[in-house]
Known about the structure:
By secondary structure, the protein is mainly alpha-helical. It is built from four helices and no strands.
Amino acid sequence: xxxxxxxxxxxxxxxxxxxxxxxxxxxxxxxxxxxxxxxxxxxxxxxxxxxxxxxxxxxxxxxxxxxxxxxxxxxxxxxx
Length: 80
């Protein structure tokens, strides 16, 4: 039952990441998707995969996206 709730939450956040017009919000939503995936892997008794997903998927990828976002302009700043 918990796995089904995690998958539904992951799908909802992934859809939100696609719909958000603000790039910072989309990056944070994609980090949440990776964290939910890590929790799901841990619940499925794959702690090594969960640690890899949390460290690479959530932390490293999010940090790279935030650095790239900081060096460029955000979407809503172009509309002004």
